[in-house]
Specification:
This protein has 534 residues and is an alpha/beta fold. 49% of the residues lie in helices and 12% in strands. It folds into three domains: 284 residues, Glycogen Phosphorylase B (Rossmann fold, 3-Layer(aba) Sandwich), CATH 3.40.50; 163 residues, 3-Layer(aba) Sandwich (Rossmann fold), CATH 3.40.50.2000; 31 residues. The strands form two sheets. The protein has a seven-stranded parallel sheet. Strands 10-9-8-11-12-13 form a six-stranded parallel sheet, sandwiched between helices. InterPro entries: UDP-glycosyltransferase, UDP_glucos_trans.
Length: 534
């Protein structure tokens, strides 16, 4: 067989596998995160399953924007008051310096607890409990959207269903316990550390990394206590539930929204790490709404998309900042699409600026006339811009956005400015550099080609592995032994300790023996003389 016919056969086999697997499973998605960007990624994963004939039910806090006619959504919405508090939290984030992610995490424990409490309330809601208290319900697979919530895996046990975790981030130490990935802090930068792709960390960086890791471990230990308590609170009334530790280990796979081959870091991953980065990006963009399409079709000098994401509303920013942004953008020859919620209250009118409340970001970024993306550097937006090969100006606000921005700049795809201290002149200079120097666009286009080059697309990967887990009723055979091992055993510290003891004992005995021999010899000086004579 020559190469191309072998490829045809393999392709045919893959399609047969994909089709024959679609016998219509019952799948439950548990997506309780209050962050819209998480929900987009998670819904995009599960939508693939609905499109391929599975019966999908999802539990959410927010109203999903990614939907499918065959997905049953059980939304347990936040109260009006909670929504207000969420908005106030975001506004507070937007007004403070969050560039040190770990410090921010500790500082914002209160806000994090608020979101986690809301997620826990959902699991205790009768609409969710009905699912398992009604014994007729049967699920073949539970997909859990990850946000520091492993106790929610209890619901998979209720259905005796295998579980897949859907993570809207790359593999990191948060998941070491769930997937059993080997972690080495000597070359794996911790969350929040940006190291150039393929570069080893310097001595100083490794020291920083050690401390960053230690700080994260403390944070995780606190979160673990929260998880244990939540598990008790939600499932404690059922004596047939296994201990929390077993629940956490019983995960078949984790879908990560990353693609290490193109994005890095290059690291060892166990087989239950499945990367589906870019899952939210459509293979073919949808046609744009008429107004946007017309606006972009007349962009003789190209166009810029400005969006600070789904969490931060323009009203969360200082009004002066919005005015400064407007002053610079309104002078450009490029056209600008600006995501802005309050259309009666804009920073100013200009022929080259179109304000819009809601934007199909992925479809806009796919448009050939878009030449620059001004973004808050959320993982989703950066991924989309990278996929479509568009350079970026990052204005990060909180969470992983600062480290995303740092990494994006290191990769050469754009520039980053502090939103908190934004001034007109540096903003204008950065825009000019990005619009006039072709190097950013060239680098990100090269990346885009790498990012798209995969044996199976992200959607095919989600479908294949979800059906794989359903076909085999879980995936206990591909679990890493590291999941069963504690810190001491996984680092072989007990073996090293034994060896050290053996060596110490050996040295001690040798010393005793030698001293005894010397003493004996010294006690009988004549015998030494005898030896010397020989
Ligand atoms: C689909 O799932 C729902 C649970 O949300 C269930 O009530 C319904 O019977 C399922 N449909 C089929 C055809 O299995
Ligand atoms: C682990 O998952 C399997 C399905 O893959 C299930 O049958 C089993 O009950 C689960 N065990 C625990 C402790 O949840
Ligand atoms: C992009 O802009 C150019 C110049 O205005 C226009 O001719 C072209 O049709 C636009 N492309 C699309 C896809 O709208």
């Amino acid at each position: 067989m020559d190469r191309s016919s072998r490829q045809t056969v393999i392709l045919a086999l893959v399609s047969v596998l994909l089709i024959s697997g679609s016998q219509g499973g019952n799948i439950l998605g548990v997506f309780t995160s209050t962050s819209p960007s998480h929900l987009i990624v998670q819904m995009s994963m599960i939508k693939v399953l609905a499109e391929n004939g599975h019966n999908v039910t999802v539990i959410t806090a927010l109203k999903p924007v990614v939907t499918h006619k065959d997905i049953t959504v059980i939304q347990v919405p936040l109260s009006e008051e909670d929504n207000k508090q969420m908005s106030a939290t975001i506004a507070q984030f937007a007004s403070q310096d969050n560039s040190n992610m770990i410090a921010t995490m500790f500082r914002s424990m209160g806000q994090m607890k608020f979101m986690m409490d809301k997620m826990r309330d959902i699991m205790r809601d009768q609409r969710v409990k009905d699912l398992y208290e009604n014994k007729d319900n049967k699920f073949d697979l539970v997909v859990l959207g990850y946000f520091l919530n492993t106790y929610q895996l209890g619901i998979a046990h209720k259905f005796k269903a295998p579980a897949i975790v859907a993570a809207s981030m790359p593999p990191n130490q948060l998941f070491d316990g769930i997937v059993g990935n080997p972690s080495s802090i000597s070359y794996l930068p911790s969350i929040g550390m940006a190291v150039e792709r393929g570069q080893a960390m310097t001595f100083v960086q490794r020291i920083q990394n050690l401390f960053a890791n230690a700080a994260l471990e403390v944070l995780f230990a606190i979160l673990e206590i929260y998880n244990v308590n939540s598990y008790k609170l939600v499932y404690g009334d059922d004596p047939s539930m296994p201990p929390f530790e077993e629940i956490g280990k019983n995960v078949s796979l984790v879908f990560f929204s990353s693609h290490a081959l193109s994005e890095g870091p290059i690291r060892p991953n166990v087989p239950s790490v499945i990367e589906v980065g870019g899952i939210q990006i459509k293979d073919k963009p949808n046609p744009l709404p008429k107004q946007l399409a017309e606006f972009l079709s007349k962009a003789d000098n190209g166009a810029i998309l400005l969006s600070l994401g789904s969490n931060v509303k323009s009203s969360h920013l200082k009004p002066e900042t919005n005015i400064k942004i407007f002053n610079v953008l309104s002078k450009l020859k490029q056209r600008v699409i600006w995501k802005w919620e309050d259309l009666d209250n804009t920073p100013g009118k200009s022929d080259n600026i179109l304000y819009s409340k809601w934007l199909p970001q992925d479809d806009i970024l796919a448009h050939p006339n878009i030449t620059l993306f001004i973004t808050h550097a959320g993982k989703g937006g950066i991924t989309e811009a990278q996929y479509h090969g568009k350079p970026m100006l990052a204005l990060p606000i909180f969470g992983d956005q600062h480290s995303n921005a740092l990494k994006m700049v290191k990769d050469g795809f754009g520039l980053s400015l502090s939103l908190l201290t934004l001034e007109e002149q540096p903003f204008e200079e950065s825009l000019t550099e990005l619009l006039e120097n072709p190097q950013y666009s060239e680098k990100v286009k090269t990346f885009s080609a790498l990012y798209r080059d995969r044996p199976m697309s992200a959607r095919q990967t989600v479908l294949y592995w979800s059906e794989y887990v359903m076909r085999h009723h879980g995936a206990p055979h591909l679990q890493s032994p590291l999941k069963q091992m504690n810190f001491i055993a996984s680092h072989n510290l007990d073996v090293v300790a034994l060896l050290v003891i053996v060596v110490i004992v050996f040295i001690y005995i040798s010393k005793l023996t030698i001293t005894a021999i010397i003493r004996k010899l010294k006690g009988k000086p004549e015998s030494i003389d005898k030896i010397k004579k020989h």
